[in-house]
Specification:
Rossmann fold; binds adenosine-5'-triphosphate; AAA+_ATPase; transport; nucleotide-binding
Length: about 280
Amino acid sequence: MADAVKEKVKVSSAPDGSAPPVVIDPNREPIVVVDDLHIIYRVYGAGGKGNANNALMRIVRRQNRPSMKEVHAIRGMSFVAYKGDAVGVIGTNGSGKSTLLKAIAGLLPPQQGGVYTAGQPSLLGVNAALMNDLTGERNIVLGCLAMGMGPDEVKAKYDEVVKFAGLKDGFIQLPMRAYSSGMGSRLRFAIAAAKSHDVLLIDEALATGDAKFRRKSKAKIDELRKEAGAVFLVAHQLDSIREMCNRVLWVDEGRLVMDGDTDTVVDAYVEATGK
Ligand SMILES: Nc1ncnc2c1ncn2[C@@H]1O[C@H](COP(=O)(O)OP(=O)(O)OP(=O)(O)O)[C@@H](O)[C@H]1O
């Protein structure tokens, strides 16, 4: 990494590879604190096929369950996100971006370290899990209720959600299984955006949207940033990250490579990976 870049951004890996201690800026309001976070997935039955022979061998060897493989997906990450931050998370496939978001949402228990959030984190699409067999209309109502809105609030917001999603005429009355992936993600985003969130986590949800929808989403994210604490966005499209984020975390093999302002980190990432 170029020395000039190192000077501009806080590089989060200590020389021995361990996560440095978190330092909180006393002049800003911390919303998410990730402190030396480690996440390990345990995959059971990774050692072989689940057939009768293998089961017999396990009995003979007195193994009482299939072999287990550990995947150390997050290997000591520390950072602080402050009020008003829109944080982009970039990295190659399998680098740990989605795992980091799930951990911030509280869906994965840390093996070591911790995640502290001021307020309730919402992972887009999970908090309002939509149902394929129900119409868009029913999903809006159920999704908004699932996010904690009252029936009157849902009624008041309904038209706004439909307008924001901007589906073709008549689609809102069709079951969601009839939607394209882009239409599904528009509706998911529109539902999530109907409520202000303390911490909003968006994982690739905008990837399938077209340019016009991305522009609308950016305006919405800016609005949410003002009301909410912080927004995190995972995306492979670096354009979305450049448009929507003021700060970027570059993740590789479960570690933070760089944490800094958007252009500096994205430029360094492009230079390093050629993407
Ligand atoms: N449920 C799971 N069980 C076991 N291992 C998993 C699971 N989910 C992810 N992993 C592993 O954890 C590591 C990080 O995966 P993760 O999905 O967080 O990466 P990512 O950066 O979001 O990837 P992509 O860009 O492909 O979506 C990978 O090695 C992956 O194989």
